């Protein structure tokens, strides 16, 4: 999907880091609620799927099962957001972890991933013919594939182009907002206090509140990176 070889490696490296962090958060034995563990696991799966999409070989992976999976994931996040909103209106304490607004954004990301998979697969239903084979590949309406071999890229046209532009703007806004959260948390986090520990009488010990802030910052950074990664992939298809 990404024609630029260097950009593919940059995205793959970034998504690999996001995937590893998400898996660590999902498997971390810190009493995290099952809902949050599932959310981190879904983001790890999405990181892998996005990395595969960035490479030409990803076009050979069946898109429909992936799209169904991410559509179900989007529905699940939407249900989580609705449940948390209802609980908030009824005065019930919120679940530990991300607020309900984050679940809405996650649902948008998963839904956007499902749409992208289907949009890309629609354009690969027919093979090029004649003179078009060496230059561009025209598939279903709204899609064109250009460039030979490793330089192959996907181009969206028609209604798909408009949807991609809207999603691009949404993902850029989401990515910048998520990446701004760690900066705000850093300003609000108190400095480390030097407390007694086994390492020495004045060894710094990170307090639970500070650890929680750092974990939330890591989560926000991962979500922001994924959103901007989606924006880059959509931009490459325009």
TrEMBL record:
<feature type="transmembrane region" description="Helical">
    <location>
        <begin position="39"/>
        <end position="57"/>
    </location>
</feature>
<dbReference type="Pfam" id="PF17197">
    <property type="entry name" value="DUF5134"/>
</dbReference>
<dbReference type="InterPro" id="IPR033458">
    <property type="entry name" value="DUF5134"/>
</dbReference>
<keyword id="KW-0472">Membrane</keyword>
<keyword id="KW-0812">Transmembrane</keyword>
<protein>
    <submittedName>
        <fullName>DUF5134 domain-containing protein</fullName>
    </submittedName>
</protein>
<feature type="transmembrane region" description="Helical">
    <location>
        <begin position="63"/>
        <end position="82"/>
    </location>
</feature>
<feature type="transmembrane region" description="Helical">
    <location>
        <begin position="6"/>
        <end position="27"/>
    </location>
</feature>
<feature type="transmembrane region" description="Helical">
    <location>
        <begin position="103"/>
        <end position="120"/>
    </location>
</feature>
<keyword id="KW-1133">Transmembrane helix</keyword>
<feature type="transmembrane region" description="Helical">
    <location>
        <begin position="161"/>
        <end position="179"/>
    </location>
</feature>
């Amino acid at each position: 999907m990404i024609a630029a070889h260097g950009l593919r490696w940059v995205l793959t490296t970034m998504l690999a880091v996001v995937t590893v962090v998400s898996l660590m958060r999902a498997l971390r034995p810190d009493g995290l609620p099952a809902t949050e563990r599932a959310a981190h696991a879904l983001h790890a799966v999405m990181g892998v799927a996005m990395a595969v999409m960035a490479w030409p070989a990803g076009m050979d992976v069946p898109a429909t099962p992936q799209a169904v999976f991410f559509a179900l994931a989007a529905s699940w996040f939407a249900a989580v957001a609705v449940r948390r909103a209802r609980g908030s209106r009824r005065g019930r304490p919120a679940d530990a972890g991300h607020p309900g607004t984050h679940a809405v954004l996650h649902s948008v990301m998963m839904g956007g991933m499902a749409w992208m998979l289907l949009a890309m697969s629609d354009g690969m239903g027919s093979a090029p013919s004649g003179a078009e084979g060496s230059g561009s590949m025209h598939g279903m309406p709204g899609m064109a594939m250009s460039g030979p071999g490793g330089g192959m890229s996907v181009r969206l046209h028609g209604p798909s182009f408009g949807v991609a532009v809207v999603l691009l703007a949404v993902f850029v806004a989401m990515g910048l907002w998520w990446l701004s959260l760690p900066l705000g948390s850093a300003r609000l986090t108190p400095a480390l206090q030097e407390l007694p520990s086994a390492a020495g009488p004045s060894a710094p010990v990170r307090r639970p509140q500070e650890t929680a802030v750092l974990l939330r910052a890591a989560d926000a950074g991962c979500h922001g990176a994924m959103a901007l990664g989606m924006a880059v992939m959509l931009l490459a298809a325009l």
